[in-house]
Design goal:
Belongs to the UPF0303 family. By secondary structure, the chain is an alpha+beta fold. The protein contains six helices and four strands, in the order ααββαααββα.
Amino acid sequence: MTRQPASSPAPDSAPGIEELQEQERRLVFDRFTHDDAWALGTLLVELARERRAPVAVDIHRAGQQLFHAALPGSTPDNDAWIARKRRVVERYGCASYLVGARFRAKGTTFEESSRLDPDTYAAHGGSFPITVRDVGVIGAVTVSGLPQVEDHRLVVEALEKFLDR
């Protein structure tokens, strides 16, 4: 499996922990149905196509895959990355990029300090919790194929557009 560089510090333009936490507080659903998964997934595919981004997109809710698309240029490795990033969201209840940022803020990395198998978990940007108001985290929306900050930003952009409708 190909590795994405994660040990290096995030670039200056990368969101900080406070911004990541604010995104999670703000990007909350009142409900999340199968139709919502289709609409959000389709929006993500449209955004990725506009950028000619070679990504795979995945939406899971309560252990069920509700949406998946693999765009030109994506590979089976992207699906493996999606699963690893999604498991971080499921375990920690927050964005995979935020989990990695918290480890980096402590002067370490997720791989060095989490005691979790890096072949099963990846605290890299691109997976964001689907949180329903008064319920909590029920799933994850995940993108893989770009550098981790760009994967994260693409998901956040789609969530912002979807929730502003």
